[in-house]
Amino acid sequence: SAINFLERLCLTWMFFFMMCVAERTYKQRFLFAKLFSHITSARKARKYEIPHFRLKKVENIKIWLSLRSYLKRRGPQRSVDVVVSSIFLLALSIAFICCAQVLKGHKTFLNAAYNWEFLIWEAALLLFLLRLASLGSETNKKYSSISILLTEQINLYLKMEKKPNKKEQLSLVNNVLKLSTKLLKELDTPFRLYGLTMNPLIYNITRVVILSAVSGVISDLLGFNIRV
Where exactly are the transmembrane stretches of this chain (predicted)? Predict the structure, then answer.
């Protein structure tokens, strides 16, 4: 019993240590994204003591896109995504086991000690996933903020009225901004769950397996068939 307890303790510590590392990485990504979103604002750039430039030239837009690409690739990527996917798979597996146990006998579900252990693990994993999902969602909003490009386009239109002699040059910059807006929309991966990059296989398993299990539990508890 003592060896079993020590093994569980060590494995639990290692697993939660990896989750803390993943959370720290997500916090760093959010910080980079937050500072990146302030580059084109003079007031916020002055407040956070970071460089400032406007997207009124093609060279500036090129630098802005290159900096965005560099910051998104900065830090560990694949290892953190593997940790997050493992957490999600473990939470999904525990949820599936709990649903199967409830379908087997919901009145005696809480009588078994291992079911309580499953519920504690599921609650802890869901808290971490919610935290990571919140950070990932905010990070994506900062990087995929189309409002920055739209604001720069409005500024260009206003500048065209003030300086008609530079209309051709400003029109070229405006066209590049429009293409950049379309590019940012195309770069967003479809396999995202509140900011967490999901493997297509995991994404499809989530849609099919867990929704079917939840549908079965709800149907068993309410007494009639429900399809989720």
Answer: 6-26, 82-103, 115-133
